[in-house]
Structures are given as C-alpha cells and as structure tokens.
Amino acid sequence: MPRYAYVNGRFTRHGDAAVHIEDRGYQFADGVYEVIPVHTGELVDEGPHMDRLERSLSELSIPMPLSRRALSLVAAELMRRNALTNGFIYMQITRGVAPRDHKFPKKPTKPALTMTTRQLPQPEATFERGGFSVVSVPDIRWKRRDIKSISLLPNILAKQKAAEAGCEEAWQVDEDGFVTEGSATNAWIVTKDGKVVTRRSDAGILGGITRLSLLKVMRVEGIELEIRPFSLEEAHEAREAFLTSSTNYVTPITRIDGKPVGNGHPGILTMKLRKAYIDHVVHGKAGAERFEVEAT
Ligand SMILES: Cc1ncc(COP(=O)(O)O)c(C=O)c1O
Hints:
Layout: E1 4-7, E2 10-13, H1 24-28, E3 31-39, E4 42-43, H2 46-59, H3 68-81, E5 87-94, E6 112-119, H4 123-126, E7 132-138, H5 153-164, E8 169-173, E9 179-182, E10 186-190, E11 196-198, H6 209-221, E12 225-227, H7 232-237, E13 240-245, E14 249-256, E15 259-260, H8 268-283
Parallel strand pairs: 7-8, 7-14, 11-12
Antiparallel strand pairs: 1-2, 1-6, 3-4, 3-5, 5-6, 8-9, 10-11, 10-13, 13-14, 14-15
Pyridoxal-5'-phosphate binds near residues 208 and 245.
C-alpha cells in the first residue's frame, strides 16, 4: 500500500486522500489522466507522456494545473516518499469544483490534480506465462478515443467481459469488423509473411506511448511494418498477436476468442520485440520522440 498520495498541492496519507464531492471529475468524468511507467526509480518516456497529457487537456480546454517541470518535481517527490522502484505513477487532472451543471463553469475553476503510485514487479523479471488470451467485444465508445479521458465505462465493461470469459484482455471491434484496440492496451498482429500490423493512431484509438516507442524501436531494428486496420478475421488467422501498454510492455497473445494464435505459443517476433522494448526501457528512459512527431 502506498503511504502517500498527492491531492491539490499537498502530500497526504493515502488512506486520507479525498476530493470535493462536486469535483467535476467525480460528477461528470470531466477530466483526463496519465499512467507513466517507473523502472528502477525513473519515469519511462516521461516526455511523450507529458505531451499526451497536455494534448488531452487542451482538447478539453482544461489548463495545466502546474508547469511540466513542477509536475515532474511532484511526481519525483511522491515516488521518493512511497519508495517506488518499479510500477507506475498515476496522474489525474479534472476541470475542478463547481456546482453541478453540464456546461463549463462561467467562472473558470482551478483544475484539480491528484497523483498516486503503484508498485509492480519488474515486467522483464516476471514474464513466465504462456501469453494472454483475449476475447472480442463490440467497440461501443465515443469518437474521441485519442483523448485519455477518465470516462472509462465502455473499457470497464469490456474488461469485465474478458474476465468473465477467463481472458486477460478484450479486443474491441468497430462496426466494420476492424479491431480498434484493447480495453487498456493497443492491438497488434504479425501476418503469415512476417509483417507487423497495427492501426493508425488517430481519433479511433488512444495513441499509446508504448506503441509509439515500439514503433521507434522497430525502425531501428528494421522490422517490416504496416500501419493499417486489421479485421478480427485477419487476427484469427494471424501468425502472432500481441498487445502493448505502459504496464504490460509488449505481451504476447496466444488465444483470441478461444482459438490459438499461430501455434498457440508466444510468437518469436513478439518475444524479440518484447526484448527490444525492454532494452529501450532499461537504457533509453528519457530518450523518446515527442508525441507530435508521429505521422503514422
Ligand atoms: C484504451 C487504451 N489504449 C491503449 C493504451 C496503451 O497506452 P500506453 O502505451 O500509453 O500505456 C491504454 C493505456 O491505458 C488505453 O487505456
């Protein structure tokens, strides 16, 4: 259990941390969040995570509550207080407190900022499992999935369906039969001729920072890539499949809707990418590109 949380300017004991009952995040999910992975006490890809946070806020006309530098200092202090070595820091920013009314408050509110941490085992040390199973579900979300909104009900329902099916993740499928992404992860396949496929980062999915860094890693490794949507049928026929996220890194998928992917074991290319991504985490924590540069 972490000892401290950060709430609106104060480090408070985690069990006592609280926000106002009329915080618009609590009442309307009017806010955004970031999950920044921490590896051996350092933030991974801090720059791109902060870029995405700023972008999500600006899309909702919520001002940054602190400068990037100050946010970094608060995060570092919370990590120190909680002796966080591996895991993640969670940041949430909402429009703030105002009497309940859907439209933005006339008098600008002070955005509310909270942070917590979670200790997790080092992913590279713990991955012994055969791979994840996923179940497909219809994508019932809104059309601005690029905003990292705290409004996550469809994602919660998708993840619950996965749990009920004995799976670790759900792959959401749009009206045209294409996989958009997981409930909290980006989706990838490897075709029979060895090409890695993932869909374009636009309003249809959350632009994952792990996805972004893996694309960079793949360019360095010279791995063939196709940025395009893939259908659920194509995923069922794929040689390999995997997912990416800040807490799962690159994780093989070995079953989709109960059917084995390829030979039913973690794919060779997937495990190579996992290793290359972990090298990026271990050696290149600060060195990722800015969010805006992604043209894909
Ligand atoms: C819907 C969704 N897609 C993708 C991701 C992966 O993003 P990242 O790699 O930045 O963790 C997340 C992470 O929370 C997510 O919620």
